[in-house]
Amino acid sequence: MFITYTNPVYEYKKSPDQSATEIVHHPVIVVGAGPVGMGAALDLGQYGNDVLVLDDNNTVSVGSRAVCYSKRALEVLDRLGCAERMIEKGVTWNVGKIFFRDELVTQFDLLPEAGHKIPAFINLQQYYLEEYMVDRLNELDTVETRWKNKVSAVEQNDDIVNVTVDTPDGEYQLSCDWLIVADGANSDVRAMMGLESTGKVFKDRFLIADIVMKAGFPPERWFNFDPSYHRGQSTLLHRQSDDVWRLDFQLGWDKDPEEEKKPENVIPRVKAMMGDDVDFELEWASVYTFQCRRMERFRKGRVLFTGDAAHQVSPFGARGANSGLQDTDNLIWKLKLVMEQKAPLKLLDTYCDEREFAADENIMNSTRATDFITPKSAASKSFRDATLELSKRFEFARKLTNSGRLSDTAFLLDSTLNTPDENSFEGDMVPGAVMSDAPVSGQNGEQWLLDSLGNHFTCLIFVNSADDISLSQLEVLETLQQDKIKLVPLVVMTGQAKTTIDEIHTLLDTGGISKQRFDALSGTTYLVRPDQHVCARWRSLDADKVRQSMLRATANL
Known about the structure:
Layout: E1 24-31, H1 35-47, E2 51-54, E3 68-70, H2 71-79, H3 83-89, E4 91-93, E5 95-100, E6 103-109, E7 121-123, H4 126-138, E8 143-146, E9 150-156, E10 161-167, E11 170-181, H5 188-192, E12 197-213, E13 221-225, E14 234-239, E15 244-250, H6 257-260, H7 263-274, E16 280-295, E17 299-300, E18 303-305, E19 311-312, H8 320-339, H9 346-373, H10 378-390, H11 395-400, E20 439-442, E21 445-448, E22 457-463, H12 471-481, E23 487-493, E24 505-509, H13 513-517, E25 525-528, E26 534-538, H14 543-553
Parallel strand pairs: 1-2, 1-11, 2-8, 5-13, 11-18, 22-23, 23-24
Antiparallel strand pairs: 3-7, 4-7, 5-6, 9-10, 10-11, 12-15, 12-16, 13-14, 14-15, 16-19, 17-18, 20-21, 20-24, 22-25, 25-26
């Protein structure tokens, strides 16, 4: 096989903890140095918290694996210091096309509007993402990563978690206040604790083939139902970096996975799809069976489960790594406040409530996509084929066509951390929604609204000009900054006057985009969580209401 990437090898080093006479304690241990585990560690590390990462391997993922990264996941990774390299290296795309028997029946644009820093999706091999995340971890003094350190036992009581770690130099013990589990779909830690992940296994198989070729296809997602070269099944085509192309072939349940991923069986399928005259090299192949399942609860005492360890979906729609990164984005700010005794333990239960809801939404969408792509009866197949045929001419059928509803952000509309609206608003920025980005300008020139938020609570106030904020309101903003939980006021000028407010971070709306997206009349105020979810909004600034919403948003009510 042709290889475009050489896996780095990270050195195993014996830790002083292994020779200590007493068990060494760490505030937080993360199990697993995949994208989700490293996302948790980076978030904690950037807050200034010490965190230890344990991984049983000493390299990044072998094979491209997850390749599609959504806008929301990239926004999280941007705050963690990784997205810029990803976007520069990856293949940006917004358009997806769906074919039926080789004929285009419908297409979609995932980001048809301007005014966003981050693209709808990029395609990038998972090993690049992991390499960039390891590099970023190594920049933080607060994070230590130990390679070839496999967790082999976990025990906990009300106050502490004890772990046994297996290394090339033998076993040793550690303890921690909190254990974050990100060791994948077949989680060893979950099994050690006697916990289950239940759901549905779909009786079908898909072949993944990564090929290296020069081709003039546009950077789009192409899904083909019942193509001439693979009758009765479906295929998927994605472009990755380094001229690597991801091809998926539906195989059926009766195929032998080990036989199907042999090069002598993969190459004829690729030639049938791409043509005999296309010059390519096979880089990697794998066969997967997909399933949708999750744990009943993502927290067990002081052990917190994230990513595939907590929930798993079939790959259609790119919901695996993308949802896992949103897990850690939801979890870490809550864990930090609990560790600092600024919020009660029940705040961590809202991590379970919110991300279990998101997992159920992902499982529902993934199941529907899988049922459409792989119909289980003649009647279902007839409905599917009729829908695809009608999609050529009718909009209603296009909405029913499902080649994998692509990963999106969960709107946490029923979260107990939200404060219900008391005023009338237009648009999507409801309590529970993730804030939309928008171009703004400030002292450092052109920038983006999400970049201005940081990883703390933000009180976002929109005004036409500095004259619309009174002295008493400025005093309110100063008192908000002095509360025990960090709350940073951020003023956005929606008028044309390029004015600033002393000692208050002030931005100028660019082109009226933020004003439109937030339905921002002068005085409109939003309270935004550290994970950039809106938790409250009002038509005027009222310090008492902001404080009450802060208490609600941190489970202190």
